[in-house]
Amino acid sequence: MRQVAVIGAGMTRFGKHLERSLKDLAREAIEAALGSAGVDKAKLEAATVGNAVAGLITGQECIRGQVVLRACGIGGIPVINTENACASSSTAFHLAWLYVASGMYDLVLALGMEKLFHPDKQRTFQAIGSGVDVERAEEFARQMSGEQSVGAGELRSIFMDYYAYLARQHMARYGTTREQFARIAAKNHTNGSLNPHAQYQTPRTVAEVLASPLIAAPLTRMMCSPIGDGAAAVVVTTAERARQYTTKPVFVRASVLGSSEDHSPDAPDVIAKVAQRAYAMAGLGPHELHVLEVHDATAPAELLAYEALGLCAAGEGGKLIDDGLTTLAGRIPVNPSGGLLAKGHPVGATGVAQIAEIFWQLRGEAGRRQVPHARVGLTENGGGVIRGENAAVAVHIFTV
Amino acid sequence: MRQVAVIGAGMTRFGKHLERSLKDLAREAIEAALGSAGVDKAKLEAATVGNAVAGLITGQECIRGQVVLRACGIGGIPVINTENACASSSTAFHLAWLYVASGMYDLVLALGMEKLFHPDKQRTFQAIGSGVDVERAEEFARQMSGEQSVGAGELRSIFMDYYAYLARQHMARYGTTREQFARIAAKNHTNGSLNPHAQYQTPRTVAEVLASPLIAAPLTRMMCSPIGDGAAAVVVTTAERARQYTTKPVFVRASVLGSSEDHSPDAPDVIAKVAQRAYAMAGLGPHELHVLEVHDATAPAELLAYEALGLCAAGEGGKLIDDGLTTLAGRIPVNPSGGLLAKGHPVGATGVAQIAEIFWQLRGEAGRRQVPHARVGLTENGGGVIRGENAAVAVHIFTV
C-alpha cells in the first residue's frame, strides 16, 4: 500500500451555531482545508464524509455529503457517506486514507460535520441516543445508572451514564478519585483556553470542575463534553505528490478501525486492541509518541485511554495525571486542543478535528497550545456503545 | 491493486416484513452468504454495511451495522456504515472491494439492509424523500410535477415524480412511448415470476401494466418499484484465496462510484460517465456484456440506463425493448431477477442484491431465470437526486 500524507486541514470553531446550516459549516471547513493545502476543489478525486445524526436532527439522510459538497461547488466525484457515531469522521478519514493508500485515487477530501443543537433539546438527546442499540436502550440505561448516578435531573445523554458507570468501576478497582478526573477536565479546559477553535475558552481549576453541577456521579458538568455544532476537513494525497503542495506533509503511519466484541473481563478492551494493531502498523510504540488527541467524551474516558493506549499500566491513569505528565508542559501532552471537553464534540466532526489538531501540532502551527518538538502524534476516536464497549474505535498515528 | 472475487451471496425474499427486524433480515442474508461461501463468521476481517433510512424509520442511526452484526455473533472487526440513498449497499460493496483490493484485508462481508414499511405510511415516504436535498425538496417537487403528472392522488415518493419528468422529456425528444415503458415493466414482472426472492412473482402483460393505476404520468403503478423490506449479503476475498473456497469465484473487474455535477445538457450524464470509467477499468465494452442488473426504480429508468450504459445509442432505448433484446431470451438480458420493479427495492439492500444476482447468473445458479452462457455481467445502481441527476451512481463489472 502507498504511503499517504495529510497536506491541509481546516475547521470551524465548535459551538452553538443554531443559525448556521450543515452546508455553511462544511463550506467553512472545506475552504480552510483546501486553502491550507493549496488545492483547487476541481482537483479533488473523491470525498469521504462523516456525520452521525443529521437524519434525526435535520431529516437529511441518504446523501448528506453530496448535499453539502454540491453547495460548495464540488461534484462529479465519488462521495462516501459514513457514520460510526462519535467516530464517524475518523472512519471517513480512514476511507480517504484507504482510497489513496490503495492506489485508487491520489487526492481526497475527508470531511466531518455535525449539528447537534436543535430548538427541541429532547431531539438532540434522542439523536445522540441512537449511538446504542435503540431496541435495547432502556435496558442499557438501567444497567448503567445505579443509585449513585442520580444527577441534576436534567436532560442528558445516555453516554454520560455509561461513562459514569465506567468511572465508578475504575474507582472501585484501582482507588481512582474524582479529583483525578477533575484534574483531567481542568487540564483540557485550560488547553482549550489557548485554542481559537474551542467551544469553551475559559481556563478552569480542579476546584471549579468539582464545584460544577453533578450530571451522573462522579461526573460533574465540566467533566462532560458539551453539545456542539461544527465541521472539520483535511486533504490527503500520496507521500510523493505531497511534496508538490507543501514542504511540511504529515504522514499517516497507521489507520486502524475496530469494533467491540464479547470477551472475558480481563482481556484487552477494544481501544487497546485497535491501538496494538495501529502500533504494529506504524512500527512504533506508545513511548515514542509526542502528542495525542484522545476521545475524552468525559474526563474518565481520557483516563481510561491513557491505560488502553499504553501510556501507563492498567490502574495507573490517575497517577499519570497527578504527575502532570499529560499537561501541555508534561512529557506526553494529551488533548492540547482542549479535547472534546473544551474544544467541543459535534460528534460527526470530532474525528477529523482531532486529526487536524495533530496535523497542526506536527507542523508546529498550533500557536499558544503548541507542544514543542512534536514529531509523532496519535488520535483515538471512539463511537457508540454495544454491550459495554465502544462499537467503533479508530486509531491513527502520524509522523513528520 | 489486487484482483478481488465474490465467493458467496445470500438474500432474503424482498417484501413486506412488518413483523421482522433489521437484525432478523440481516441474519438471514448473512447466514446464507457465509453458507454459500463456506466461510465461518469468525474468519471475517471486516464488514461494510449499506443502509439508507433506518435513522428515520427505526430511529437507529450511528452504528446500524454493529447493531445487526453483533446480533449475528460478529464483532471485533472494522465495520463501515455507509449510505448513498438507493446506492447505499453498492457503495458498501465498493468499500469491501477496496479493503481487499488494497491489501488491507483478505476476507470481507458486504451487507445491504432496509426496512421501508412502517405502520405510518407517511413516515416511509418522508424517509425516502431524504434522498434529495431536504432544504430544497419542495422546490424540486414543483419542478418535477407538471400538470400532466397529477396521478392517483395517493401518497408517493418524490422519485416517482422525478422519473415521470425524465420519461416525459425522453418521449418529447425521441418519440418514446408509454407502451415501450410498459414493455420493460412487463418483462421485469415476468422475470420476477421466475425468482423466488422477488417481492412480486406474477407475470404481467403490457396491457396489464398500462391498465394499472396512474401514479405520475406516464407512469402507472406497475412501472414503479414498490416499497419493500429486505437484506442481501456477499463475501469477497482475493482472487488467489478464492480458490480455497470455491471452484466458481466471480471476479470483480471494475468497481466505480461517482456523483452528479453541473454540466451542459448535451454532456454525458453521471451514469454514462461512471460506466465509461468502469468499462475502462475492466478493459471491456458494453457489447461484451452477457447480463445486466440495472436500477429500474421505474421502467423509464431502465430505458435510460440502456442508453447511458451504451447498450444502444441515445434515443434508441425504445427500439431495444421493442426488439426484445433485453428479455431473458434476448441478446443482452437486463434485470433477469425482475429488477427493482418486481424483485423489489428495499433501498439499502438493492445494490448488494443486484450483485448477488449477477453472482448467481455467472455461476449458472439462477434457476428458471438463468441467462445461458453468461460470463460477463454488470450492475448499475443509482441513489438520490441533486439538480436533476443521481447523487450517487455505482457501476460494477464481473466476470468468471
Structural class of chain A: alpha/beta
Helical residue percent band of chain A: 25-40%
The domain count of chain A comes to: 2
Please provide the count of β strands of chain A. Answer: 11
State the fourth-level CATH superfamily of the largest domain in chain A: Thiolase/Chalcone synthase
Major β-sheet profile of chain A: 9 strands, mixed
The end-to-end span of chain A amounts to 19 Å
**Which blocks of ≥5 consecutive residues of chain A have pLDDT under 50?**
none
Q: What's the total helix number of chain A? A: 15
Give the rounded overall mean pLDDT of chain A. 96
CATH fold group of the largest domain in chain A: Peroxisomal Thiolase, Chain A, domain 1
* CATH-level-2 architecture of the largest domain in chain A: 3-Layer(aba) Sandwich
Beta-strand content bin of chain A: 15-25%
Radius of gyration of chain A: 19 Å
**Helix and strand sequence of chain A:** EHEHHEHEHHHHHEEEHEHEHHHHEE
Q: Mind telling me the CATH class of the largest domain in chain A? A: Alpha Beta
Assembly status: homodimer
Please report the two chains with the greatest interface, counting residues with C-beta closer than 8 angstroms to the partner's C-beta: A-B, 61 and 62 residues
Report the principal-axis shape of chain A. globular
In the sheet with the most strands of chain A, the strands line up as: 3-2-4-7-1-8-11-10-9
